Amino acid sequence: MNGVVIWVDAESSEAIVWCDDHDELAYCDLSLEESIRPCTPGIWVTFRLKDDTGVRVAYDIAPAAHPDSPDLALLLRSPLQTGFLL
Asked: What is the signed CA dihedral for 29, 33, 34, 38, rounded to 10 degrees?
């Protein structure tokens, strides 16, 4: 699957990934992912997906061959700039 990292907590090594199937967001434990360090919001990624007791978990995550969008999370929160109401 493909997606975009939209949130990262460097202290806990956790990330949230938007998935291109437009279903629920996926959780990722970055401490288990060697190929995605450092990880910042806006990075396009490819990954595998599993269900862990009702939580979508991204694993085998790797950078994708797409341009990064470091301002994506900010744009998604800003209805004045995007025209969308979230």
From this structure: -50
